[in-house]
Design brief:
The chain has 3 helices and 13 strands; from the N terminus they run αββαββββββαβββββ. The protein is an alpha+beta fold.
Length: 182
């Protein structure tokens, strides 16, 4: 991304956002504004990779996909980049995954970005109707699974190191938080 991005006048449109192409930073679009964060740390990436590995077989067995760091279009001009998503079968050449195809969304909470994941994105994912939201606390390795109920997320289950988080929907999977650091 070049400095010209920061010379942009007015709100960003979805088309302008998608025209940015791939970047080293995570650039998300929230209602005409760009939200830019540095690339994930090695620990963050490791947790994401281990979580994806734990979900890969159950997701495939269910006929779904698990993807890392993709654009998810929640509505026009609102496109975050979650750490992981479990989706229905989709066209992998599309520039984004439509929220209607997302069965579970996951964010790995970075210490400096907790409010975005726990408040802003949680609200946006719920408003888009994504049924399951998985939060992983990077420091403590506590994993929280939320289910959409009456337009907002309600905690469904929680597990920390030495415990097991068992998913029954949208796939049958077991997550052992301490293994996310393997």
């Amino acid at each position: 991304m070049t400095a010209a991005v920061f010379d942009h006048d007015g709100p960003w449109t979805e088309e302008e956002y998608l025209a940015l192409g791939e970047t080293h930073q995570r650039v998300e679009l929230f209602d005409g504004s760009l939200h830019v964060t540095p690339a994930p740390t090695p620990q963050h990436q490791n947790i994401s990779g281990e979580l994806r590995a734990a979900l890969r077989r159950p997701v495939r067995d269910a006929g779904l996909r698990v993807l890392e760091g993709v654009n998810v279009r929640l509505r026009p001009d609102r496109i975050p980049i979650p750490d992981l998503v479990v989706t229905d079968p989709i066209d992998l050449d599309d520039p984004y995954v439509d929220a209607g195809d997302v069965r579970l969304v996951c964010e790995i909470i970075s210490p400096g970005n907790a409010a975005t994941d726990k408040v802003l994105k949680m609200h946006y994912y719920a408003a888009a109707g994504i049924e399951w939201y998985l939060l992983v606390e990077q420091k403590s390795l506590v994993v929280q699974l939320y289910r959409l109920q009456d337009g907002h997320y309600v905690e469904h289950s929680t597990a920390g190191p030495g415990e097991v988080l068992e998913l029954t929907e949208p796939v049958h999977a077991v997550i052992r938080p301490e293994r996310l650091l393997d």
